């Protein structure tokens, strides 16, 4: 929390003065109405339904919530942004986007963008971070031995110890190749003796194609791509990266019977995408792709380098409530 908070505090300095002239893009992952057990959702990647409703009500009453296409239109016409312009976005593809978040957004009339990892839709495939979380959460062992940059003996005999181990493993894994992810995930499942499973929490469930089609058919909502399986695109070879992007967009277009012109980079830090990735996205008709780098955006910000503000995750607050920004 501390490192993330300090980074956000730095880049969002004078937030409440800047939002009249700059665009705020909020980044969510999930919205939940269940009680978690153990360390499942310890990071609050899935924020509570009540918190989400309060935040959305605040936006409706105090800000100008616009669609991503509204923003691109304003940018093209060189008009001024409405004061306190906000775009609401979701990454990954969790079912609770449809069952919990979307009804709130629809009820309040708030446009939103959903960037979905095409290969996991309608499946029980789990993201690697959720597999690690689930394995540690369900493990009964007192310790595990995992090789990262060196061999670590992690104590996991308490919730706090499990969280420390999970944070260390995630920190390392976000900066290694996709093949290393597979090795680390396999090692953790072997060490813990746990087979990660979607059924262990509703928060792990993914949206179905029928649900996504209904989401897409609502004029308030926009659907975009987010890769096939959430692998880091800049870590792939050029051929692998292009195949991933093309396949993820094709799969959405076939199932939604509509063209896709929006995308968001998996993980989304500066080293997780590059000019080759952007060139391929443009080649396949993508108009913009926001990052997960924190910050606000002027109308001069390149639409393939848009910054977003993560909400809830690792204790990051809803920025409009935070007077320290």
Characterization of this structure:
This protein is of the alpha/beta class and 325 residues long. The chain has two domains: 2-125 and 206-321, TIM Barrel; 128-196. Helices cover 40% and strands 13% of the residues. It contains eleven helices and ten strands. Strands 1, 4, 5, 6, 9 and 10 form a six-stranded parallel beta sheet that branches. Strand 5, helix 5 (96-108) and strand 6 form a beta-alpha-beta unit. Helix 3 (49-62) packs parallel to helix 5 (96-108) and helix 6 packs antiparallel against helix 7 (159-173).
**CATH class categorisation of the largest domain:** Alpha Beta
The H-and-E topology, N to C, reads as HHEEEHEHEHEHEEHHHEHHE
- CATH topology-level name of the largest domain: TIM Barrel
* Terminal-residue CA separation: 15 Å
- Using only C-alpha atoms, the radius of gyration works out to 19 Å
Helix content: 25-40%
Please identify, by name, the CATH architecture of the largest domain: Alpha-Beta Barrel
Number of helices: 11
Report low-confidence residues grouped into runs of 5 or more.
Answer: none
Strand content: 5-15%
């Amino acid at each position: 929390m501390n490192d993330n908070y300090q980074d956000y505090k730095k880049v969002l300095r004078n937030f409440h003065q800047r939002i009249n002239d700059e665009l705020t893009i909020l980044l969510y992952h999930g919205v939940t109405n269940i009680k978690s057990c153990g360390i499942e959702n310890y990071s609050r990647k899935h924020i509570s339904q009540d918190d989400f409703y309060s935040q959305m009500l605040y936006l409706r009453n105090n800000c100008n919530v616009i669609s991503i296409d509204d923003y691109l239109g304003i940018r093209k016409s060189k008009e001024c942004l409405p004061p306190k312009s906000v775009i609401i976005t979701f990454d990954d593809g969790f079912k609770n986007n449809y069952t919990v978040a979307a009804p709130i957004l629809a009820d309040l009339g708030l446009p939103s963008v959903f960037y979905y990892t095409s290969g996991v839709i309608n499946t029980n495939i789990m993201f690697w971070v959720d597999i690690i979380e689930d394995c540690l959460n369900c493990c009964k062992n007192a310790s595990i031995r995992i090789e990262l940059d060196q061999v670590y003996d992690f104590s996991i005999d308490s919730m706090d110890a499990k969280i420390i181990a999970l944070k260390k493993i995630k920190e390392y894994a976000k900066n290694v190749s996709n093949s290393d992810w597979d090795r680390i995930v396999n090692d953790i499942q072997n060490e813990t003796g746990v087979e990660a499973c979607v059924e262990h929490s509703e928060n792990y469930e993914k949206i179905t194609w029928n649900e996504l089609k209904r989401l897409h058919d609502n004029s308030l909502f926009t659907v975009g791509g987010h890769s096939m399986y959430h692998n880091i695109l800049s870590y792939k070879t050029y051929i692998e990266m292009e195949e991933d992007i093309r396949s993820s967009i094709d799969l959405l277009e076939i199932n939604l019977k509509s063209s896709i012109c929006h995308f968001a980079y998996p993980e989304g830090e500066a080293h997780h995408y590059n000019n080759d990735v952007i060139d391929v996205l443009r080649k396949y008709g993508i108009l913009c792709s926001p990052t997960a780098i924190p910050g606000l955006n002027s109308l001069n910000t390149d639409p393939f380098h848009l910054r977003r503000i993560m909400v809830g995750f690792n204790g990051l607050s809803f920025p409009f409530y935070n007077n320290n920004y």
